Amino acid sequence: MKKKILVVEDEKALCLLYKEVLTEDGYDVTTVPGAEAALEAMAKERFDLIVTDIRMPGPSGIDLVTRVLCRQPDIPVIINTAYQSYKNDFQTWAADAYVVKSSSLEELKSKIKELIERPHVPTQKRPD
Amino acid sequence: MIEIINFGGQDFEKDASKELMLLSFISQSFVQPFSLEDNLLAILSALTSGSGLGFNRAMLFLVEGPILRGRMWLGPRSTEEALYIWQTLSKPGVGYAEIIEHNRSLLNRPEDDLSRRVRRLAYDLSGGPERIPSLAAVRRNIILVRDAGHEPFLDEEFRDIIGQDEFLCIPLLSRDGVMGEVILDNAITRAAIEPRDVKLASLCGLVAGNVIALSRMHRRVTDMERMAAMGELAAFITHELRNPLAAVGGFLEQMADPRATDRKKKRNLRIIRGEVKRLEDILYKVAHISRVDMAQPPPCDLEPIVRSILSEPDVRRKKRQRTIVLEVEPGLPPVLCDPVYVAGVARNLVDNALDVSPEGGTVRVRCVHLQAERSVLLSVEDSGPGIPPAVQDRIFTPFFSTKENGLGLGLLFVKRVMEACGGRVEWEGGEGRGSVFKLYFPAGGKTGET
């Protein structure tokens, strides 16, 4: 069965690109334009991995990481952003990986592969 | 009845006490533009001017790292020159400003060999031999040399340059340490240096030390602000460029795949072209925000510019399902602003208004002549959600935007243009109701006049 990836990205062109490239890599990809839409999608189905931008209209990707950790602490999250500087922000450290957007998708693809294939370790749900 | 007196507009009488003269001289130096050179010149002038302390010559050293380095030497080079200068400066009507200007011209003479000689001198304060004059800076004490010919601690080169038996070394102290040193003498009049002169000169030294410290701190803060602004700009540009570059790189990679169909390649090309256009727009906006240059703009007519903007393809595309109402007062005078900038600011405001107005909404553009204040008002009113109070004071801040893909430079550009042409920008509105942006252009003569 295909692994499910949720891509949270407000740039339309990048949404299309990630969907196509990751689908070709054998994943089932859903794209949403913001954090609120991501939480709605997560309420409907279970994903194996989340890739999120930081700066988006509405709640930021960092807010999303915090809320995802409360709901599904065992789901790997990759922050995929154009900002190098947020790497120093401790709030982003809760994510499993931090990838700076570039003209090559290799780093993002390899992080996805590494995290999605990582043996699943069930964790307790954190209190809301 | 009231009497209005200008600050620093009067000089004290020639017979006022030296303390009062000195205070007057130095106080006035601080109303001048904040420049270290000017302030130092003012202090040296106070020390050497007949209106101030009245030493004949003042030599200035500044501390640069561990080195005490000679910077300038103010004073006449000969008795004849001294007599001429003192006669000139003691004429009625010659005050603070004239003395400073005169001294500036003395220092800027190409043949100013006094300063040239002192600039050769440099002393190591961090463990070099203890020699006069640097000893005063090292020990942080005033040193009065009475007999230079028999002074064992005196640096030989310095002895040759100053050529006097009696001189006074004043370290320039501040809270940050020693900033420099001043050496004073009476090479022309040969008058003995009195204890009262030493006291007053030491006070001058304290003022000078703190002026230098303050000026250096000011420069450091300015540099840090510039660096911070550059860092902010660099981070912003990096971010703005990365998104389109990621798209361009990704779609190109897809095209390089031999399995890519022609249809996909065509689509990718279209996307890449759009992203490249976006990159160009970003660079254009960043490049133009920093230089709004408008020297004596010719009068131009507002109405045709506004009408032309409303018919531009981008505006027409955006205004679908929105209404634009244009009201122009007949007989509108031309405005004094470069037409390219007029178009730029009008386009920015109309663009913003269309972006924030919902489908079915209305954008009102009005051009009105405000005769009383000799200006022409261009107002653009949207029917958007308004500007939340939390961000109202940031709307003209660089890189701040409430729009999804906004660069946060548009309103800053509008503000810069309006300031450059002598007009102003205002806005009205709040959360939950539309906003009105008002541009007040200065009204000019007839178009075509130069």
Task: Report what the structure shows.
The complex is a heterodimer of chains A (128) and B (450). By secondary structure, chain A is α/β, with parallel strands linked by helices. Chain A has a domain at 1-84: Response regulator (Rossmann fold, 3-Layer(aba) Sandwich). Chain A is built from four helices and five strands. Chain A has a five-stranded parallel beta sheet with strand order 2-1-3-4-5, sandwiched between helices. In chain A, helix 3 (61-71) links the parallel strand 3 (49-52) and strand 4. Chain A starts with a strand and ends in a 12-residue tail after the last helix. Helix content of chain B is 45%, strand content 17%. In chain B, the strands form three sheets. In chain B, strands 3-2-1-6-5-4 form a six-stranded antiparallel beta sheet. In chain B, strand 12 and strand 13 form a beta hairpin. In chain B, helix 1 runs antiparallel to helix 2. Chain B starts with 17 loop residues before the first helix and ends in an 8-residue tail after the last strand. The mean pLDDT of chain B is 82.
How are the SSEs ordered, and which strands pair?
The complex is a heterodimer of chains A (128) and B (450).
Chain A (H helix, E strand, L loop, with lengths): L3 E5 L3 H13 L3 E5 L2 H10 L4 E4 L8 H11 L5 E5 L15 E4 L5 H11 L12
Helix pairs in contact in A: 2-3
Chain B lengths: L17 H12 L6 H13 L8 E8 L2 E8 L4 H11 L6 H12 L5 H6 L3 E3 L9 H6 L3 E3 L10 H7 L4 E8 L2 E9 L9 H62 L5 H28 L9 E2 L1 H9 L2 H6 L4 E6 L6 E2 L2 H18 L5 E9 L4 E7 L28 H11 L3 E5 L7 E7 L8
Parallel strand pairs in B: 8-10
Antiparallel strand pairs in B: 1-2, 1-6, 2-3, 4-5, 5-6, 7-9, 10-11, 11-13, 12-13
Helix pairs in contact in B: 1-2, 2-8, 8-9, 10-12, 12-13
